[in-house]
Amino acid sequence: MSEFPSLPKDLIPSDARFGCGPSKVRPEQLQAVVDHGIDIIGTSHRQPAVKDVVGSVREGLASLFSLPEGYEIVLSLGGATAFWDAATFGLIEQQSGHLAFGEFSSKFAQASKKAPWLQEPTVISAEPGDAPAPQAMEGCDVLAWAHNETSTGAMVEVVRPEGSDGSLIAIDATSGAGGLPVDMSQADVYYFSPQKCFASDGGLWLAAMSPAAIERIAKINASDRFIPAFLNLQTAVENSRKNQTYNTPAVGTLLMLDNQVQWMNEAGGLDAMVARTSANAKALYDWAEAHEHASCFVSDPAKRSLVVGTIDFDDSIDAAALAKALRANGILDVEPYRKLGRNQLRIGMFPAIDTEDIVTLTKAIDYTIEHMA
């Protein structure tokens, strides 16, 4: 007999994956791998068949983000973590400035600090659950922050701060891209991995880059700075223009990503995706605010993420035991970010997740709390 209460069938979401990356994958994405992978998986990524998929991804993202004139979609391997290192070699000229308000926004700042060829970065911090406002930072030729801090569920708008002329705006959009509103003209590098809103596997980074960013990359690449081949952003730009990657990509990941981008565009584009995540967020946050034992970790409603919801519980509720009980019933990946150490649940609300499932999840949490007590 299970030590946890069993949920009634009507309290099991139709899809019970609520992870914040990897995230829920639509069945149609997996079917796309079955239908199309037989012809191209295991073939050269420098031949037309695979390059056509990369080209479709790039075109689809350009449409989804309504890219301004001259902007390009660039991609390479390694995920956003690799992009931070690549940026220290090939995007930051002398000094970067960072907004740090959680695990991932802080890591880019740490990467810049450890690069001996760069000056000490300027870092403006806020406690987890809050976020500083975008602002110019003297002497910084790159200003960087996360559109959405995956570890805490706080989001910050993408905007060119007053007085930031000459600074490239680099936005870590790993968990926000495709689910949060963005005016791409306000950013120079809007980079992300595909395992969040785009419901694919990891191992890639993709970025919408402005002409100014591409010019900066070319300038640094032509200098005498040492740049490892795997992390060379100029190489990524040149290969992306050929609809390929420098190293061999995971073709299954590309097929899943391509199918998701097509679904997003066919369903109404970014505005429609933001409408879906907004409905999910409203359902979760309204429930938490009305709950006797729960509250929203991000106290400022304007900073609460539309794609990653973090819900605190008072001391009468053991959130870790609650997450285990939900997992025992097939409701997956609602545990908090491991290093945050809070008595909370963290819930993915990405575009592929239906609002009805968020509502059912809240009812399942209520039922579990009652019957565990």
From TrEMBL:
Keyword Cell membrane annotated: no
Segments forming domain Aminotransferase class V: 139-331
Pathway noted in the entry: Cofactor biosynthesis; pyridoxine 5'-phosphate biosynthesis; pyridoxine 5'-phosphate from D-erythrose 4-phosphate: step 3/5; Amino-acid biosynthesis; L-serine biosynthesis; L-serine from 3-phospho-D-glycerate: step 2/3
Residues involved in L-glutamate binding: R46
Reaction(s) catalysed by this chain's protein: O-phospho-L-serine + 2-oxoglutarate = 3-phosphooxypyruvate + L-glutamate; 4-(phosphooxy)-L-threonine + 2-oxoglutarate = (R)-3-hydroxy-2-oxo-4-phosphooxybutanoate + L-glutamate
Record PTM N6-(pyridoxal phosphate)lysine, positions in chain: K196
Cofactor(s) this protein cannot do without: pyridoxal 5'-phosphate
Cellular-component GO terms for this entry: cytoplasm
Main location class: cytoplasm
GO biological process, alphabetically ordered: glycine biosynthetic process, by transamination of glyoxylate; L-serine biosynthetic process; pyridoxine biosynthetic process
EC number: 2.6.1.52
Top EC category: transferase
Residues that, per the record, bind pyridoxal 5'-phosphate: A80, T81, F104, T150, D172, Q195, N247, T248
Single annotated GO MF: O-phospho-L-serine:2-oxoglutarate aminotransferase activity
Its job: Catalyzes the reversible conversion of 3-phosphohydroxypyruvate to phosphoserine and of 3-hydroxy-2-oxo-4-phosphonooxybutanoate to phosphohydroxythreonine.
Family: Belongs to the class-V pyridoxal-phosphate-dependent aminotransferase family. SerC subfamily.
HAMAP family per UniProt: SerC_aminotrans_5
Protein's recorded name: Phosphoserine aminotransferase
